Amino acid sequence: MNDEVFMRQALAEARKAAAAGEVPVGAVVVRHGEVIATGRNAPVDGHDPTAHAEIVALRAAAQALGNYRLDDCELFVTLEPCAMCSGAMLHARLRRVVFGAADPKTGAAGSVINLFDEPRLNHQTTLQGGVLAQECGEPLQAFFRQRRADKREESRLAHPLRDDALRTPDAAFDDVPGYPWSPHYVSDLPALDGLRLHYLDEGEEGKDGLTWLCLHGNPAWSYLYRKMIPVLLQAGHRVVAPDLVGFGKSDKPKKDSFHSFSVHRQILLELVERLDLQNIVLVVQDWGGLLGLTLPMAVPRRYRGLLVMNTTLGTGDAPLPAGFVAWREMCAKNPEFDVARLFARGNPQMSAAECAAYSAPFPDKGHRAALRAFPPMVPDAPDADGAAVSREARSFWQNDWTGQALMVVGAQDPVLGPPVMRELQALIRGCGEPVVFEQAGHFVQEHGEPIARQAVRFFSPAV
After folding, report:
1. What pTM value is reported for the model?
2. What's the rounded Cα separation, in Å, for the pair 94 and 446?
3. Helix axes 322-333, 369-377, angle to 10 degrees
4. What is the DSSP annotation of 324-391?
5. Bridge partners of 202?
6. CA-to-CA distance for 102 and 218, rounded, in angstroms?
7. What would the pLDDT profile of 70-107 be if each residue is shown by its tens digit?
8. Which residues form the catalytic set?
């Protein structure tokens, strides 16, 4: 018998796992050309985190032989084993391990790490991967596709869509790279009036820990922070990153007229209150700053730091930056501008898939009301919506702010670049010299890893 024959028997076990509602992985143990034990995934059914298919099969084989050493046995499994199962295989002294589909997230036989190729271990097991890889992968793909569909249906029922709004299909976000975090939704904030707001909420505050409240601008969404979030989580902090209504995974009102400075500010205030965020480091850029810089004065005790990047305050009593005026005119003339192309032009280091991820929330004209509404929303007169509260915020930052402040500037930004940021620096009490990223443009978070590392160092000493 060859490897494919035994792998098909492992596939039969995987199908049993799927029928029981488990992740479809199956395994068989073979000795002298005969199957002596089988196993399927059963952690849910058995309330046992160790009940992976390989472990179940190893236990059955050891019982069948009356020996925990399986040095003349081979194990066939439909999915690349994880670190736990790989360790058990090595302890069992298996002669050979054969797997089907690779596991790029947790595979310990070459995808993430390769325990079978570790010379410091006192036993080496022969390894063979990729046997019937496509056939082994198909049940797994179908399982997780159905699981995503079930979660979407649960979310739809929990947060019904208003008649005057659109919701980007969740499938549009399935393939965006570098964004593995689970969605969170809220629709019962008073200012939302039933619209569904999406936000990321990762990590834990911990004792005296920080909460990084990351606010994006136009036409971005929380994807903008994907390079910063892992660094902040690794430091042991909590990260909350909402998608403004009209952007990302949040609902998109059909009419441009829904959008106003006051409405979006109120939604953010209510979200902070609902999540009871404490020890906040406010992270802002673009509209994230126009709105976000007006939040701390409402409840100053919640805020501990400010990380401010390429933004401004719309006080209405000073001319708007020339670069912004040019951007607003471009948006008015080209309301269907290519979002992916915009990011590619200013960020040559980004892949095509990353650029496309910024277009994902806006599959057609109907989903783009926020993109049309936000440029003219920037307060440009003393009586414009948001101007008065922005002037109050200016006074707060000048006179009442007592937290830390770090400014990071993308030098290549033609809209809100170094000259604008220098003016903003002068308004923020205690803000030191800006950290300038010479190669970064408007979306400076696309250089997020070093920014996040510097921010952790800057804000953490007081922790």
Report:
1. 0.72
2. 46
3. 150
4. HHHHHHHHHH-TT--HHHHHHHH-TTS-HHHHHHHHTT-SSGGGGHHHHHHHHHS--STTSTTHHHHH
5. 239
6. 38
7. 999 999 999 999 999 999 999 999 999 999 999 988 99
8. 286, 413, 442
